[in-house]
Amino acid sequence: MTFLLGSPERPLRVAIIGSGPSGFYAAEALLAATIKIEVDLYDRLPAPFGLVRYGVAPDHPKIKNVIKVYEKTANHPQFAFLGNVMAGKDISVPELQRFYDAIIFTCGAQTDRALGIPGEDLSGSTTATEFVAWYNGHPEYRDRKFDLSQEAAVIIGQGNVAMDVGRILSKTVDELKTTDIAQHALEVLAESKVKEVHLIGRRGPVQAAFTPPEIKEFGGLKDCDPVLDPAYLNLNPESQIELEDPNGAVRRRNWEVLKEFASRPTPTKRKRFVIHFCKGPKELRGNGRVEKVILEKNKLVGSPGAQQAVGTGEMEELACGIFFRSVGYRGVPIPGVPFDPKKGIFPNVGGRILGDDGKALPGLYASGWIKRGPSGVIGTNKPDSVETVNNLLSDVSHLCECPMPQRAAVMDFLKQKHVRFVSFEDWRKIDSAEMERGKPLGKPREKFIKVEEMLAVLG
Ligand code: NAP
After folding, report:
1. Residue 74 has what pLDDT?
2. Rounded CA gap, 41 and 84, in Å?
3. Contact at 8 Å (CB) between 321 and 150?
4. Confidence (pLDDT) at 1
5. Cys-Cys link to 437, which of 46, 60, 397, 446 (CB 3.0-4.6 A)?
6. Residues 196-213: pLDDT tens digits?
7. Quick check: 164 pLDDT over 70?
8. 145 band by pLDDT with thresholds 50, 70 and 90
């Protein structure tokens, strides 16, 4: 006797790959469906929550409150977490298809974009993504070295990741020590000699990618002054139109903050956060390690809302002991899934992953940054995952039924391969142990920075 997919007798089996926000929102949407669905949420690390745990800045704890919503999803009886399992390595995509009727990839954008300029490989030239993962205690980045014995740091890009990196470099240890920042990072930051943090934008103040609360924070740091040359606020007519656009509330709020920074008296604090606009990096120079960055002044070209930065040929040098590029994250491929190397995403329409012939591949879906690229805040991923799940649900009658639809079957498979998967119950134990470790340090938690340490908690 055969049962309909999604019936109580034969629930639809869905694997979600990646337990960041888009993964949890996809799980939530699936579990709210009217048909019966079992959801197994995978992560390559034993800890869930992706960029909420390893990307959100430690001094922005309120943003992490969203975890409470994800924990509710995790409590659902048809939900299982399988942490410490790397899709594509511990279990291949064809193997997953033996146990699941559909797979949703929510694996995010795990690497960064390069600038492609001479000297980018010099020692001291690094990436915001690695620095963020390092200070957040990501096991794969714990051994990275960041030489903060330098006085001048330069950050290229003006998105909110650049804001996070700039703030962590500009704050005092007192401002960070009661956060969940990794202890190894706190110790290096305590010895930091960085006095000047330069934030370089290739376009102007009206086009900056940061958001008002993030830029405003630099006005209230304990031992760092924001510095902005008022000349940057002389706008071309196109930028003036962008600023006055009725939909430009965020730009106007940024503008007010920048105007206030530009009107401040001479800085007196130990550190300075110097904001530059309309400059692009051309080259890094140094003897064995980065010593200076060559910047080209840009002008803006194009109509309002579509202005691009174009080099003027006028160069300037900026002393730079440590250089961070922060120009966006990038997805990485998973064997067995089509990948668009130009965009760094899985090619898709509405989350349905497309094959080489441009047709949707049955049972393969994407959501979050691997679907649309690295944009938006955490909440942006909710409607994005709902769209993918709705498309999946409307495809149910065309899905190929997997031959082994029992959760126990996939768990047996992983056990046979000696993959020590971590359940949500296991994670709760690791979570409690981390919180205990944080108590003597006055921190909300001290994260384990090695996978072995997390597994050791489980015995
Ligand atoms: P982003 O917001 O896209 O910013 C990228 C920055 O890099 C932009 O200033 C961009 O300038 C610049 N850029 C790109 N290519 C460049 C190049 N070749 N040369 C020089 N500059 C270049 O990316 P992100 O900062 O990585 O953030 C990713 C997403 O996460 C964003 O949606 C962000 O809002 C979100 N996020 C939010 C928070 C928060 O809410 N607190 C924290 C962190 C991240 P152009 O504008 O000229 O392209």
Report:
1. 98
2. 11
3. yes
4. 64
5. 446
6. 999 999 999 999 999 999
7. yes
8. very high
CA distance 149 to 171: 16
Q: Are 230 and 262 spatial neighbours (Cβ–Cβ below 8 Å)?
A: yes
CA-angle at 381, arms to 431 and 337, nearest 5° = 90
- At residue 2 the predicted structure's pLDDT band, cuts being 50, 70 and 90, is confident
Q: Please count the CA atoms within 13 angstroms of the CA of 205 that sit on its side-chain side.
A: 25
Task: Compute and round to an integer the Cα radius of gyration of the chain.
Answer: 24
Ramachandran assignment for 290, one of left (phi > 0), alpha (psi -120 to 50 degrees), beta (any other): beta
Q: Domains in the chain, start-ordered, CATH in brackets?
A: 12-110+330-422 (3.40.50.720), 114-327 (3.50.50.60)
d(CA 95, CA 89): 10
Ligand 1, atom nearest to 376 Cα? 32
- Which pLDDT value is given to residue 3? 84
| Nearest partner of 34 among 60, 61, 57, 4, judged by Cα | 4
Residue to mutate, 53, 66, 115, 160, ligand 1, most ligand atoms under 8 Å from C-beta: 160
Q: Is-contact 26 382, C-beta < 8 A?
A: no
Atom of ligand 1 nearest to the CA of 57: 42
- What pLDDT is recorded for position 394? 97
- The two three-digit tokens of residue 413, written as one number: 């498979």
Instruction: Note the residue count of the chain.
Output: 459
Cα separation, 39 vs 28, whole angstroms: 9
Name the closest-CA residue to atom 40, ligand 1.
377
DSSP summary character for residue 187: H
Burial 359-370 (b: 16+ CB within 10 A, else e): ebbebbbbbbbb
What are the DSSP E strand ranges found in 18-115? 37-42, 79-82, 102-105, 111-112
Amino acid identity, position 187: E
Residues in contact with 39: Cβ distance below 8 Å, sequence separation at least 6, in sequence order: 14, 16, 27, 30, 31, 76, 78, 79, 80
pLDDT in tens, 379-424: 999 999 999 999 999 999 999 999 999 999 999 999 999 999 999 9
Residue 289 three-state SS: strand
Which residues does ligand 1 sit against, CB inside 6 Å?
Answer: 115, 156-162, 164, 201-203, 207, 209, 214, 280, 326-329, 374-377
pLDDT of residue 90: 98
DSSP bridge partners of 292 = 285, 319
pLDDT-based confidence at residue 149 (cuts at 50, 70, 90): very high
